[in-house]
Structure formats: structure tokens, C-alpha cells
Design brief:
It is built from 17 helices and three strands. It has 341 residues and is mainly α. α3 runs antiparallel to α4.
Length: 341
């Protein structure tokens, strides 16, 4: 059976257009400049192609979804779009000086805030050491998605909705869990010699160096809502997944000094790493701690009632039993906050 032509069958793109450029792929007019139109077409086609993401077309649909995502991110990236358009023969155009250039200008232009609120927001941000994006979110003036889009405009970076993204597994495997958690980022895929990485803010030089070293490509940041990035990290980097030991090679063994004993296989085994206090417990450890906690709670209740029993001449009242239960509840609360989590 011949392979299906997904461009024709799913997107209605004529056979003569192969490979389709970004505009044809997203069913846009050539050199479309309306970012909202580009995003709207992408979302509509994304939802359509996802209908085929099961069964025999699973792999091909995921490949097409990522191809469309790369096209959308390129066409919503001001600098990337200009370079791409020029590669298709478009003459350079003058920059529109009236376009919003900062978070505040974007939010005012889109009527999310009033110009009279700008000074209040700036004062709020300065007093608390916040960015303007985080200030308008904390003040509950703008939804996180719109505030992040405004920041993307200021940083001249594309905005991405991670719910529409399917990061490539081989790219995720390149970056260990500790790196993505440290920098609050999510690697997506490689496109035209750049590694696209979803970030919550402008990437640091340390992250850019890390990505270049591990992936062999410079990175290109795309902005996403902080909560969406954290949820994606929890999904694709669950505890135990993509840890450092499984994603990077161990450095070469140093040459032994003269007279030293050769290293044995036993010496080469990695040392057990201490578990971070904030790391989630394994199912076995959680079950063991739960059992110990239950025993401790029971003994705290029994012990309290026993003290009253012997103090009152081997008699017990309902009030004293109630006190014992309260003591057990207090012990349970303490264990829950400290040991049993």
C-alpha cells in the first residue's frame, strides 16, 4: 500500500506544490502579515490533523503537526519571518514605527488596560521587583496568556500555546530533567539549524550555552505561559524520566597516575545520589512511611487514653477518649507536614 499524501488528503494542498512553503502549509495568502490570522489558521488545521493521530496514521500525523508548528512559529517570529520572506523573494519592507514595542504599549493597543493605568502598574511592579508582565497578572488586570503575548512582542519572540505542541522525544532526551526544571523551559524540536525551546522569559546565557553544548545547535526561544511550561515539564519529565545519567555520557576516565592501581569495574559504578528533600517519594517509600505514620497515630491515641486510665484509678470517660482522638489528629497533621509526603 502506497504512503498517503497527507498534504493533499488532509490539507487539500495540490500535488504540484511539493514541498509546500509555510504559507501554503497553513493555507494562507503569500506573505500574510496578520499574526492573529496566522495563529487562527494554525489552530484550525492543528485540530483537524489531530483527528488522524491514532492508529496507522499516528506517526505521520505527529510529523505533520510538528511541521505546521514550525511554520507557525517562523511566521509569528518578526525576525524569523523577515528572513524567511526574503528567501522566497519578498523585497525588504520598512519597519512600522507605530507597532507596539513594549508590554504596556501592546496591552494598551489591544484595550486590555487603559493608558491611565500604566503609571499605577509601573509603580506596583517597581515596588515588588516584578516585570510588567507579572505585575498585570498579579493585579488581575490581564489573563496570563495575553500578558505573555505582550512580553513576546517586547522581546521580539514568537508566542506558543503548549497545548498545541508535540515535542519530539529525541529532542526531549537531549536535555536532562534537572536542566529544564532549573531554567523552567521545555525543548520542542529543531528547525532550520535552531533548537526551539519554550521559555517563560528571555533565556539566560547559561541556558543558551547548555542547549548549544548538548544539542549541537544554537537555541531560539519561544515564549509560553509559565503555568503551561511547568505543567509540560511535569508531563514530559516525570520523576525518574530523562535523568542526567540516561541522557549524557560519562566523562572519559582520567589517566591513572604512575604507580596507582588500575580502576576496576566496581569502581566505575556510579555512586548513589542522595534524594532531594523536595523530590517526590517512590511508591514503595510512600507506602512504608504511610504504614509507620498510621502506627504512630494509633499509639499516640492509645498512649493518651492509657495515661488518663491509670491517673484516674483505672477508669476512663468519653471526654478522655475524645482527648486521645484529638491528640492522634494533631500527630497526624504533624506527620503529614513533615514525614508523610
Amino acid at each position: 500500500m502506497s504512503e498517503i499524501d497527507v498534504y493533499k488528503e488532509w490539507l487539500g494542498i495540490p500535488v504540484a506544490t511539493r514541498p509546500p512553503d509555510h504559507y501554503t502549509l497553513l493555507r494562507l495568502l503569500q506573505f500574510e502579515d496578520d499574526i492573529e490570522k496566522i495563529r487562527a489558521n494554525y489552530r484550525k488545521l492543528n485540530a483537524h490533523v489531530r483527528k488522524y493521530s491514532t492508529g496507522q496514521y499516528l506517526i505521520r500525523s505527529q510529523e505533520l503537526l510538528n511541521e505546521m508548528a514550525k511554520a507557525m512559529l517562523c511566521l509569528t517570529d518578526p525576525d524569523g519571518k523577515r528572513e524567511y520572506d526574503q528567501s522566497l523573494g519578498r523585497e525588504p519592507s520598512e519597519t512600522n514605527d507605530d507597532e507596539p514595542k513594549t508590554v504596556m504599549e501592546y496591552l494598551v493597543a489591544k484595550n486590555f488596560i487603559k493608558r491611565s493605568q500604566v503609571s499605577e502598574i509601573e509603580h506596583f511592579a517597581e515596588a515588588r521587583g516584578l516585570s510588567h508582565r507579572d505585575a498585570v497578572i498579579q493585579m488581575k488586570l490581564v489573563e496570563p496568556i495575553e500578558a505573555t503575548r505582550a512580553l513576546a512582542v517586547e522581546l521580539r519572540l514568537p508566542f506558543v500555546d503548549l497545548e498545541d505542541m508535540l515535542p519530539e522525544d529525541d529532542v526531549l532526551d537531549m536535555i536532562p530533567r534537572r536542566i529544564v526544571k532549573k531554567h523552567s523551559c521545555l525543548p520542542l524540536f529543531e528547525d532550520r539549524g535552531l533548537m526551539l525551546v519554550a521559555c517563560i522569559d528571555e533565556p539566560s546565557p547559561a541556558l543558551e550555552d547548555e542547549i548549544r553544548m548538548r544539542c549541537g545547535h544554537p537555541m531560539r526561544a519561544v515564549l509560553a505561559v509559565p503555568r503551561a511550561v511547568n505543567q509540560a515539564i511535569a508531563k514530559y519529565y516525570a520523576p525518574g524520566m530523562r535523568d542526567e545519567a540516561t541522557t549524557t555520557e560519562e566523562p572519559e576516565q582520567k589517566t591513572a597516575s604512575k604507580g596507582s592501581k588500575p580502576t576496576t569495574a566496581k569502581d566505575e559504578r556510579p555512586k548513589a545520589q542522595p534524594r532531594s528533600k523536595s523530590a517526590p517519594l517512590s511508591p514503595e517509600e510512600s507506602r512504608r512511611r504511610g504504614q509507620l505514620s498510621a502506627i504512630g497515630i494509633c499509639w499516640s491515641i492509645i498512649g493518651t487514653i492509657a495515661i488518663f486510665y491509670f491517673m484516674n484509678g483505672q477508669t476512663i470517660t468519653l471526654a478522655q477518649i475524645f482527648i486521645g482522638v484529638v491528640v492522634g489528629a494533631v500527630v497526624a497533621g504533624i506527620l503529614k507536614l513533615t514525614y508523610w509526603k
